[in-house]
Amino acid sequence: MEAVKALFEDVKRIRKERPLVHNITNYVVMNSTANALLALGAAPVMAHAFEEVEEMVGIARALVLNIGTLSTPWVASMRKAAEVARERGIPMVLDPVGAGATSMRTATALHLVQEGKPAVVRGNASEILSLHGTSAETKGVESTHESDAAALAARDLAAKEGCVVSVSGVVDYITDGEAVIEVLNGHPMMPRVTGMGCTAAALTGAFAAVNPSALEAAANAMAVMGIAGEVAGKKAEGPGTFQVQFFDALYRLDQSTIRERLKMKRT
Amino acid sequence: MEAVKALFEDVKRIRKERPLVHNITNYVVMNSTANALLALGAAPVMAHAFEEVEEMVGIARALVLNIGTLSTPWVASMRKAAEVARERGIPMVLDPVGAGATSMRTATALHLVQEGKPAVVRGNASEILSLHGTSAETKGVESTHESDAAALAARDLAAKEGCVVSVSGVVDYITDGEAVIEVLNGHPMMPRVTGMGCTAAALTGAFAAVNPSALEAAANAMAVMGIAGEVAGKKAEGPGTFQVQFFDALYRLDQSTIRERLKMKRT
Amino acid sequence: MEAVKALFEDVKRIRKERPLVHNITNYVVMNSTANALLALGAAPVMAHAFEEVEEMVGIARALVLNIGTLSTPWVASMRKAAEVARERGIPMVLDPVGAGATSMRTATALHLVQEGKPAVVRGNASEILSLHGTSAETKGVESTHESDAAALAARDLAAKEGCVVSVSGVVDYITDGEAVIEVLNGHPMMPRVTGMGCTAAALTGAFAAVNPSALEAAANAMAVMGIAGEVAGKKAEGPGTFQVQFFDALYRLDQSTIRERLKMKRT
Prior knowledge:
Three copies of one chain form a homotrimer.
Chain A: H1 2-17, E1 20-24, H2 30-40, E2 43-46, H3 50-59, E3 62-66, H4 72-88, E4 92-95, H5 103-116, E5 120-124, H6 125-132, H7 146-161, E6 164-168, E7 172-175, E8 180-183, H8 196-210, H9 214-235, H10 239-252, H11 255-261, E9 264-266
Parallel strand pairs in A: 1-2, 1-3, 3-4, 4-5, 5-6
Antiparallel strand pairs in A: 6-7, 7-8, 8-9
Helix pairs in contact in A: 1-8, 2-8, 2-10, 3-4, 4-5, 6-7, 8-9, 9-10
């Protein structure tokens, strides 16, 4: 019940304060993440030019960096934006899309973790394992589940880098290196819509803008994702209708829906 | 009644002639503005490479420049495209997204207004105030409403630059510096969908392609936006369904819907 | 019946193997083509940085190049990606969007056809005519239909370049220079949604990833496009609902729907 109230308190603050969330994100999801932020109640802005990132970060209440469609000029802008955010105490969320797939992505993500001092790193299991240096090959026979390995990697990475790590999956795993929150909400259609992970990172930015606890912000964002996904999944007949219903669910999210559905465990 | 017929005449011309509208616009809205143009009946093309803008503008019947996700190479292409459009008498619509938020945006928008000689500048109140040099701070106590200040700024800017200024808001205000048209159509869900302003600018391009009066083209575009928004709003349960229904409403727009809904005032 | 089974066999392989399809495509359609690939069952990735294309192509099972929003750095990445794909035997699909409209597009598309050795070139009639060097002016009086001229150009281009050419239209025409497959499926709403041609190219990549016959892969992709379009068209009230229903139809596509609707002719 405490968690339900705390989560809805954050949602109400987002809707009332309409925090500006500055995204430097990938081309694929710009439209859908902007729509998700608007549907929830935040104010998105996308701006990537090196010449303007300092000013734009300066008027934002959160910064979301997403490396899904990298190129060299964008990396420079992300680094600059991260530096400004760090100096001004603006929470930064990093989505290390595809870390591990190419060396450019892994290196960029690692640099942004180490120098950018994100409040939250949000990725899937394989991305977090890659940032931690645990490749699929080196997981060892002890780890019967990838998710177990990812949980270990997440705790380790969070402790080492002094940030929150949020691993999305069937069970979302959010940790600051000590405390752990698990979110069991979600829907099987979510991986069939492009950019749902990126949307989770964008919403994490909105929650981080209004909640000074990065751990709670990250967990509340994942819970809202999962709950909106469940509501959308009831009406959807495929990923097309799912995406549309998902935006509506974010917009219509109320306390009774949260109370009815929230499955969050603290350990 | 005159206004209803004139508006539907433009819509019919767009549907019959399928004018090519060349957009150099922001990444966030490329898909949704292309879909809006297609739904209405126009033919969108997006092309931003400096090497090809001259040829592309040359085969287009309108040019839409939108600075929502600027970078230096895109600014160069926009300037080139504006120059070619001006030389060839192709109407240009400028959407100064975020003017006032960063100096790069304000400077780029001002340059495009002054050198590019747009047929129409379409923005929200704060963008138009920023282009006019009226900051929120300098509005003074006389202006009890931001929209009053924006109306003054729009008239002034239009007269000075010899263009039409179209300010979107609860009441849209369109002026060539002397004549004023106000459009009262619209729906409260519209600001909850990303890029509705950008869509208004894109549709203004389609109307400018078929109507030699920039004032009427701009007003008719805002009326179609507002009417399609009202039709969509009746069926929508949130911004997801709203966006989808909005495209359908543009596609299905007919004279009787316009007659029933149009709220346009000339002064 | 043979064709029905063969097509559904490909769909099942895509859903089971989830082939990674690497897209270097235009900004307008990145979201919708990623969603189409996911809805069908494939795994899309978008990556355009010169620094990472080699690695990314190396882990993909198909490469899709689409020149819809070109710029010089992207052309360099496309050429590099094509080279790597050719060396490693990864099928490449080229969508020459706007070839003929500007010299940059025509030259880039021609270079990618000649040096990149695509498995399939998929375009509309005017793009294929432009690649073939047959301008509208030179079609001659013998060609009473543009589609006749496009069929001749497609056969000729396919034979000369040793690739499959897939021309989309009311009747899709797919040829390797000798054999010809025609697909009669489709819906009149499809040209009213942006990027349907680009989606066809992306799905051609998914089929090429699982079917070693480029001719069959290209034809099966066009058939799935057309059938999903017909299913979507039954529920749609405009291009907004059409797009959403199209994704759902790809996701729900089953053998009985294919059997009921497939209209494919081999000659």
